[in-house]
Amino acid sequence: MVSRIRVLHAYKVFLPDVRGGVPTVIDALARLAPRKFAQTILVTSAAPGAQAHESGAEVEKARSFGDLLSLPLAPFYPWRLWRRLASADVVFLHAPFPLADLVLAFTKRRARALVIYWHSHVVAQRFAFRLVAPLMRMTLRRADAIVLSHPALVYPGSILEPFRDKCVFAPYAVDADKFSPAPVRAPGESRLVVACGRLVKYKGFDALIEAARFFDAQVVIVGEGSERAALTQAIAQAGLDARVRLAGELADEDLIALLRRADVFAFPSRTSAETFGLAQLEAMACGLPVVNTRLPTAVPELARDGLEAITVAPDDAPALGRAIDQLLRDEALRARLGAAARERALAHYALPVYCARMTQLIEDCAAGAPRALRMSPP
Q: pTM for this structure?
């Protein structure tokens, strides 16, 4: 019997502790070809320990005592990563994660191949970025491949630009059977606007709360994060307690049920820290029209203005509110954009295609010949 390729994922957090784009991507990768790959996921958590993932992958959680500048205070994580490197064939560093860079940049112990899965640039913590950028460059130099969700991440002057030749492009994907429209909408339900993401500043949920003054509908924001208290206060100060609700984290089945009841999906991110928008892709697969923001990333290319979305300037709450109001009032427009959104999700962001590409990349990296999966954005 041919031995399985041993794959190690290194990142800050994982499901179910934290939901969001990167943990969802790691979850999808952990499910790849269990007969071919033996996978381990090394993360940090306030509740340390080991557990088995549904796919059979091993999840190891090193204790974290909190966060400092978005970096977990996990003193034993570097040692655990160093120890795990000896038994890995392919390492995925899900970046940015400087605590892992600290180990991978300096240690001579390394796996057969190093893949940097670059999920986003560091935008908010500019001072901290200047301190850790040299470490990141060292691991980027050592990498055999750098995986990106979109070519826009390799812009002139970015930390990735000198390593363009190593970059391979694999847009995030969605399970379009799991995230699908409801067969029948319940009559008489009040209008519903849904947003989803970590409660952090760059997600722009404060702008959505302000925008709620410009339309008549219930608003549900799904997710948890450091901005919960500030958002709760903003809702109260605006007098919107009866219409805007912070739902916290939801299980997948509850999130899908909520999306199926919604009329519009709001995606008000304000900075280029939002590189792709997996949450809006899931909403598109549920047949929802999107109101998103004009960022220099994949966000407005995934759901395109006038085709699957209405796109507005970031941090423009009145424009955001008017766009949502337009969709709520115009049933034909809402239906057209929602149907097009579902069609685009099925045509260009199907999960089987993504899984096949990533399986091939892992096999090629383990064999010492990473193959360029270069693609133009759909």
A: 0.86
